[in-house]
Automatic annotation (TrEMBL), chains A, B:
It comes from the Bacteria. Pfam families: LacI (PF00356), Peripla_BP_3 (PF13377). This is HTH lacI-type domain-containing protein. One of its GO terms (molecular function) is transcription cis-regulatory region binding.
Length: 343, 343
């Protein structure tokens, strides 16, 4: 048998590291309190002896795998790459691991969860739009919390962490109105989700309140992607040779696609010829060619609220459901809406 | 006890679905041959009865978890988002799941693998640069293959799937030379990895062969990010008020950052005042404002080669190590290098 065989025990590791067996156990147990130096000693000894504890066997008794599943609907929007990075960092700090599921077009979220349940995940985070009440029930029966990120689905029993999307839509409408805009276009996202609809509702309601006629507000589907933003702007220009005063991209990546095509293919200046705003505040929208005015989604706070609702540290305690309330975003002024006109 | 208790067995599901128990087992077993209609019947019945098989228990006997671990070094480069999406799609088609680890600055790849081993993953894919021979040995002792994606680390015993980076660097040098460039700058990436160094070597060697003096080739560190590309271009302009004839961004995202700052802050035209090329062919570089000439990394082929080396379907058979050979990329001509000058 080779040195470092799989039969090495925690006793051997403790002996080599000069620590207690309990320290070995804590070094490998997520969230344990252990001095960094002691942990290093244990890991060094474990490496030398080729020792690894068997999490799978221990999860059979604890019914906890220390794995959180994340189901991603759309990585074409860089917002979700930043979300994934943030969850990765925060879950790692909690010594949890991420099982990542990227949904393909033909797969329902229910089927994805069905495939993840056998791993006894400690929680499920969803950024996709569809989910059945039945599936949420199945997770809850197993003590597995489900949190929808950047959306909610009414009456499913799942928590939904989100920015205050209607309020954000209203803020964009106000900024456009203050700068003198009177005709508008929206580029909308996923029609199945609540996020795009809520932002559009806030935006349109505020414009109607200000006396803008509904006929002065057009809407184009942009599918939540850069390419969708390009196509929506082209459809808008084909529809009417003069652009509206202001365009609200329901997310930044669509606003960026629209800006590029309007400037490069139609020779329009932003904001002189057409104002543009987005939503999310992805780092890409802050770059030199865009300097996009937008509503910042508080990703860090949303991620922490999600982890609070998953209640990983004390799964048997009750959850603070206040974390399910919408979190306020805020307007980030850059260059794509001019300052308010003074009367 | 509630309807749909955890004690429901595959026998109950088979009875309700009107199929055999073996069909139930196949419906949940990754890679099994089963008619889509039969699988749907089983899943419907399983949902009604709230039945889920316990993969964790079965992995104890098979020593296979159907989980592949992916350790990502850098999601700031969109190339890796596309890589993650491609692995997600391909692994799902094989009914495998992805445990994703995003490395933080202070964490060594060895520690990440140490944390993943207890899950009895079926393979490890790495896109980060550091890895010890000892850790590769630990994985191999457990029958867990390790594949480095878009890099290799000499003498570790791990496979390294990659594009032919020196050849790609040479192609860019030739395109610049043919268009009449005589002075050059490189914006380099991660100094710890092989990828940036190999591209730079191919580029510089080809220029030296063409009689370009080494003093006409400057190099700036860009850290593999958009922001790094911006800073490298600024450093270049601070160093010498006249730009070089041609800039090679060792990856597209750095080339994009450089293009933006050179055009917007220094008023230079691309390619009239300065030629630019990248490497990777990320979709972002093909967009209207960039139309970047670059070398396409064959992501789909690289992902399939990685999966071949992981040998998930027949872990006891030998691997075709030809998949470890560099895969040729090819030059994608767009707008940032003019056509060859005719003499």
């Amino acid at each position: 048998m080779r040195e470092g065989s799989i039969r090495t025990t925690s006793f051997d590791v403790a002996a080599l590291a000069g620590v207690s067996q309990s320290a070995v156990s804590r070094a490998f147990k997520p969230g344990s309190s252990i001095a960094a130096e002691t942990r290093e000693k244990v890991l060094d000894a474990a490496r030398k002896l080729n020792y690894v504890p068997n999490s799978i066997a221990s999860s059979l008794t604890t019914h906890r795998s220390n794995i959180v599943a994340i189901i991603l609907g759309d990585l074409n929007n860089p917002f979700y790459t930043h979300v994934l990075q943030t969850f990765g960092r925060e879950l790692q700090a909690l010594n949890r691991h991420m099982l990542v599921f990227t949904l393909t077009e033909d797969m329902h979220t229910d089927d994805a969860i069905m495939q993840l349940l056998p791993y006894q995940v400690d929680g499920v985070i969803l950024t996709s739009a569809q989910l059945s009440t039945r599936m949420v029930g199945m997770c809850h029966d197993r003590g597995i919390p489900v949190v929808l990120f950047n959306r909610y689905i009414p009456n499913t029993g799942a928590f939904g962490v989100r920015c205050d999307n209607p309020a954000g839509g209203r803020q964009i409408a106000e900024a456009f109105l203050a700068a003198g805009a009177r005709t508008f276009a929206m580029i909308t996202g996923d029609p199945k989700g609540t996020t795009s609809a809520d932002r559009a509702t806030g935006f349109v309601d505020r414009l109607l309140d200000a006396g803008i006629p509904r006929s002065a507000i057009n809407s184009y589907e942009g599918g939540s992607s850069y390419e969708g933003g390009v196509e929506a702007a082209k459809a808008m220009m084909a529809n009417d040779a003069t652009p509206p005063d202001a365009i609200f991209g329901i997310n930044d990546i669509m606003a960026m696609g629209a800006m590029d095509v309007l400037r490069i293919e139609y020779g329009l200046r932003v904001p002189e010829d057409v104002m543009v705003a987005g939503f999310d505040d992805i780092p890409e929208g802050a770059r030199l060619p865009y300097r996009l005015t937008t509503v910042r989604q508080p990703i860090n706070r949303m991620v922490r609220a999600t982890l609070d609702l998953l209640n990983l540290e004390n799964p048997d305690s009750s959850v603070d459901i206040a974390s399910d309330l919408p979190i306020g975003g805020h307007l980030v002024w850059r260059n794509t809406i001019p300052p308010a006109k003074s009367e």
